Hints:
Elements (H helix, E strand, L loop, with lengths): L1 E3 L4 E3 L27 E2 L4 E2 L13 E11 L4 E9 L3 E12 L8 E7 L2 E2 L6 E2 L9 E8 L2 E9 L7 E13 H4 L1
Antiparallel strand pairs: 1-2, 3-4, 5-13, 6-12, 7-11, 7-13, 8-9, 8-10, 8-12
Amino acid sequence: MAYDLRRRRLRAGGPLPPPALPRQVGPPAPIPAVVPGSVAPEHGILIAQPPVNFPPKGAIPLDEMDDADIAAGATATVITIDVPGTMQLRIDGIGFSADDETALRFLTWRMRTNGNPVAGYYNVPASIGSIREVSDVFVHVSGPQQLELLVSADAAAIITYRYIARVKGWFFGEEVRQ
């Protein structure tokens, strides 16, 4: 028994034949260039990608790496970045390492802008990413502000470890876009 869609009932005699398709196919429909960064070849129009999601032309790359010896139960500011008033900062990657990689299980990190916690990035385990292959993060800071990366070692660490942090991203602003 097969279901007849036209009559909305079951009919005997096996499956329904496939629906008839139009024999003529017209020209392909024009696809507008709505995707950021795409080019509409028929018009030669370049659509700029949002600078928060993709580094614009003239963006200033940021690849900051620093280290700190952190005792058990202590917190240290490892990286501080000043964002000028005319610029914006987009951080898209973060990674951590240590002299003894097993020490990363004791490490948590957080970000602050002008002393205020960055939403979603407070007491995050440092097990994500490494200094070679940073993990994706999304932090956008408009200047003038100061961004701080703080790392804390758990009291269970017992001894002082040397931790390494790396932050990647880009600066952009009105003068960069032109």
